[in-house]
Amino acid sequence: MEAMTMLDDILTLWLEERAEALDADAALAGALVPRLALAQIFKTGVPASAGGSGDKPSAAIGVVADLARYSMSAAFVFWAQRALIECVLASPNRALVQRLLPSLLAGELAGAPGLSNAMKFLGGLGQLQTRFTSDAHGFTLDGRVSWATNLQRQGFVLALAAGNQEGTDTSVFAVPSDADGLTREPDLDLTGLRGTSTAVLRLAGVRLGEDWQLHPQAKAFLPGIRPMFVGMQCGLGLGLARASLRAARAALDDGRSVLLGELEALEAQVRDLWEALSTGVDSGRLRERPPELLGLRMRMVEIATDAVQLELQALGGRAYLRGENGGFARRWCEAAFLPVVTPTLAQLKAEFARAQVTGTVG
Ligand SMILES: Cc1cc2nc3c(=O)[nH]c(=O)nc-3n(C[C@H](O)[C@H](O)[C@H](O)COP(=O)(O)OP(=O)(O)OC[C@H]3O[C@@H](n4cnc5c(N)ncnc54)[C@H](O)[C@@H]3O)c2cc1C
Question: What is the mean pLDDT of residues 47-73?
Fold first, then answer.
């Protein structure tokens, strides 16, 4: 069941040797984007006409999954960069696209999507944390972004959605890290994924020209990027599950263990999830069917959680020995990230419960 990898051997070795460090501290945070850029993987799944590699969109999900087999930190930073690229690709603001896209694809500029607040807000949850006013010269933004990843010290561009004062409009902006009034807080004190450059941002009177507006209507914009946002998130769990199942298989005694049936069932579920996801994203079917996409997203969390649990059972007591568990402890913690990234499992459960009543999801 070993899946083909789209990463070169030198990169996988680099990740293998640094996976624990990327999870445990921020020392390698600045090296991560340049190292991924060296492998040219940010172009994956981007149309050739836009400067990308011209392969199918699912190829980008495949890269997330490949990275997550080695390091969730690397996979999530890749997700952030590629998600920001999706935002730019979907923007009707051609001048902004031309200005940002080449450096994002080359990994010379880091991309940070701070859109979970807006996604929740448009799903009917909570308040928008950023507001904008407009005048003849452009926009002024105030507020905060509670979570954003890939806020590289060398500079970044952030995507966020802000509401107007009247509360009638929500607009999506790109904000450069050197904008006056934008403050990046120190990295959050995370329990893992500490190499992901994740922090809070504060905006106080940030002035932006119209040439920084990604889209005037978040309500129209966000559903368009959702299949790739959510699809690539599924790659996180797919890769983690593959790594755990591989470790579990290696730990089983001659394939005769009592756990073999569960292992084979989970391997089949991973294959089925990949099949449904990749064909659905490439054909555009999942764009038309949000409930199916969100159902796969929930399934991903279950499969990854079950896979790490199975790895624990296959390893037995060895799982508790530092230095002898082959990365199990890190994967256990990485699995805990999957239910809390927006759309969180709680949000998805709430949405499906609501659908039972109203008959619509997404
Ligand atoms: C390491 C890390 C990196 C991150 N990076 C980014 C990033 O780059 N960009 C970004 O935008 N965000 C990022 N996030 C934020 C992430 O995507 C989530 O938005 C965040 O973790 C959700 O937190 P929450 O407490 O609001 O969870 P939720 O699950 O949304 O809410 C928590 C509480 O609300 C309840 N609840 C949730 N939904 C409902 C509902 N519909 N009805 C009733 N109750 C409900 C839950 O039961 C729970 O009690 C990151 C988070 C982490 C941990």
Answer: 97
**What residues are paired with 130 via a beta bridge?**
143
Q: Which fold has domain 224-358?
A: Butyryl-CoA Dehydrogenase, subunit A; domain 3 (1.20.140)
Q: Give the angle 360-361-362 at the CA atoms, nearest 5°.
A: 125
Query: Taking the domain 111-218, which CATH number applies?
Result: 2.40.110.10
Model confidence over 102-127: pLDDT tens digits? 999 999 999 999 999 999 998 888 89
Lowest mean pLDDT among 152-156, 164-168, 296-300, 327-331: 164-168
| Locus of tokens 């590629």 | 82
At residue 159, the 3 state secondary structure works out as strand
Q: Given ligand 1 and candidates 236, 330, 342, which is best to mutate, with the most ligand atoms within 8 Å of its CB?
A: 342
Distance 340 CA to ligand 1 centre (A): 5
Ligand 1 neighbour 239 (Cβ under 6 A): no
